[in-house]
Amino acid sequence: MVYIDKEACKGCGICISVCPKNILAFTKDLNQKGVPYPKMIDEDKCTLCENCMIYCPDFAVVVKKDDK
Known about the structure:
By secondary structure, the chain is of the alpha+beta class. It has helices at 14-18, 51-55, and strands at 2-4, 24-30, 36-40, 61-63. The strands form two sheets. A two-stranded antiparallel sheet has the order 1-4. Strands 2-3 form a two-stranded antiparallel sheet. Strand 2 (24-30) and strand 3 (36-40) form a beta hairpin. The chain starts with a strand and ends in a 5-residue tail after the last strand.
């Protein structure tokens, strides 16, 4: 599961650009800083590679894998 802290996001789009499955996109909504933030557009295709979390300069993305 990918969690995005929309208020910590500065809207740089790095997470979107490093996603190998192209499943992140900006919302039309704005956070309190007045910038759009990313959201998952197809969670089923996510491989939990953690690229979005690793490259986010603001630690606004967290990837948690199920403990199954």
